[in-house]
């Protein structure tokens, strides 16, 4: 496993991070969660990413129980705040009160005094950005988080925050990024790099589409994410026959390199120096091992060119098409 510096922080994170979305939030049993976490340590993964909203606290609780048995300095722990945490529609967002409440709740579930990285899970256009920034800075000042990050913010939103607090505010950005979703390269990567902010990318395997297990014209495997109505919210956008045919054209490239489709997709993401880590979920230990193997792979320029040719027009590259982009920026009167 190789490690990269996370933005302007002093954190050295594993290139492959273990995520808990859709898995440790209740998608798999506790013993599987523990087995996957143990496997992560075995292969050198030291970076664990979760969020308060995953299972409304279930994912944090699962890792709190498992990680509390290990030395706190043996892993880097990241969580997020923004999503709705109860049936009350107002129990969400990035107000000062909500951030103060949710960081304490997250720490209690995670059974730790601090997280290494606290991230704004989305942007909150209904709260003055000055209030959000001050509340996040207080979390750090109080010793409850070492560093701050954000997820799925637009260039406008990033610029607004940096204009107020300067480039030392954030050390990480967490966008969706994969062979099929390349939009962050256009705006988010450049402004982040200019301000010492690394990318921690989610869905680098495009919810499993880039594994090649989904075939055009065929029903998805019964045990797959695409076949599960509660888990296929995002994957539906990538399941057109045109996209699946493009993905199948990647198989001979991977075979020619003697690597798996998973390794090809993850190595492609990690080819960018702006990317500190790729977050990948797992429901079985062998998946953790397979994901970790990508950290050792360097793709040649010829292979990258072949990938581009195989995909054709399949990747989404325009930032204005980002499905998770939020509204404008609100300032204090």
So what's the overall shape?
A: globular
DSSP summary: helix tally: 11
Overall residue-averaged pLDDT value: 92
Rg over alpha carbons: 19 Å
Would you identify the CATH H-level superfamily? NADP-dependent oxidoreductase domain
Q: Quick one: biggest sheet?
A: 8 strands, parallel, barrel
Order of secondary-structure elements? EEEHEHEHEHEHEHEHHHEHH
User: How much of the sequence is in beta strands?
Assistant: 5-15%
CATH class: Alpha Beta
Strand order of the largest sheet: 3-4-5-6-7-8-9-10
Spell out the blueprint of helices and strands:
Elements: E1 3-5, E2 12-14, E3 16-19, H1 30-42, E4 47-49, H2 58-67, E5 76-81, H3 96-110, E6 115-120, H4 129-141, E7 145-151, H5 155-165, E8 172-174, H6 188-193, E9 198-202, H7 241-248, H8 251-257, H9 261-270, E10 275-280, H10 285-292, H11 301-311
Parallel strand pairs: 3-4, 3-10, 4-5, 5-6, 6-7, 7-8, 8-9, 9-10
Antiparallel strand pairs: 1-2
Helix pairs in contact: 1-2, 1-10, 2-3, 3-4
